[in-house]
Amino acid sequence: MVIFVSEPLTKMQIFTISYFLGIENFMLPCFTKQIWGFDCPGCGMQRAIVFLLKGEFSAAFEMYPAIYPMLLLFGFLIMDKLFSIKYAIKITNVLMISTVAVILTNYILKFI
Fold this sequence. Notes:
By secondary structure, the chain is mainly alpha-helical. It contains six helices and no strands. α3 runs antiparallel to α4 and α5 runs antiparallel to α6. The chain is flat and about 45 Å long.
């Protein structure tokens, strides 16, 4: 059964959907942290996605600051597949470099 909604979902509807889907119950553990005892560069991304689904945008940024550059990159890649964008390769490279820079900066700052 497919439901088409013409209006955007409210914060309460998104919270209800994420609650009933039980997204938080299916999060993968960080094997790097379990084996070696320290965070990996991707630690916090799953929880940031859950915060985004709940509409808690500042909490998502605090959990994993690279979530927004990643969303921008993935959104641009999807748009590039749908439409012909003139400087797509250059824009993609800039978005990838900035995303990696934010991930590495966040990872380094965790240890300071």
